[in-house]
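debug: dumping io for the single-chain case to check the tokenizer round-trip. Nothing else runs in this session.
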Amino acid sequence: MLNGIHFISGLPRSGSTLLAAILRQNPRFHAGMTSPVGGLYMALETALSRRNEAAVFLTEAQRRSIVKGLFSNYYDAIHPEKLVFDTNRAWNTKLPALTQLFPEARIICCVRSVSWIMDSIERLVRRNAFELSGIFGFDPGGTVFTRINRLAASDGLVGFALDALKEAFYGEHAGRLVLIEYQALCRAPEQTMRYLYDQIGAPYFAHDFEDVHYEAEEFDLALGTRGLHSVRRRVEWIERPTVLPPEIFARFENDAFWRGEAAEERGVPMIRVT
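debug: decoded output
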């Protein structure tokens, strides 16, 4: 990684794949959907822990070197000359380590109204009416209520990501975050991208917001959730009614903890549409 690394994290269905699709237009950048690096990182943490009796022979410097080597070994074999953006919602739980390994890195967190995140996932489930989704363990039973409860649990797709974001937002490394609201990225993509380029200290690239491409069809099909990582060609905001029952939608309306003056008080740069 001759030109460094940044991380994309935040909430699901909040624009991380869209952001990666836009970034990858820049020939100096490498970005994509969730990579294997996060899972490998956590597997290494286990292997380097006291659970492994031989770990007693490892020094702190060796642990750092081994973990940092994971990133360079993975990306140097793919795009050694590019600035890397690695995506994983778990990165928000690893800031104490990441800030030491990569002092210049920023954690770009895509965020969105949790009510609309739930709506987006439920729409995907209904769009794939003849496929069972791996998001819910390929369970044929359940209702919109049980599906939303699973998503919202602290170990669920949305609940975990929300808790991880809170951990980073209220932690000592909050200033390393950059929050981008989904609505801002869709309504004002050029303004949003210029803001992001300023935050990472990179020269701006003229992106084409009318012709954005990204899909991971094989991955999505294996998960039984076709369209999970598909990006519309044109970056735009589309108004629509929710498919959720009113009590479910209202349940999450106050979960956007980063709104108001919270981000400014925590020293977290963010862009949003007011």
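debug: round-trip ok. The longest strand covers residues 5-10.
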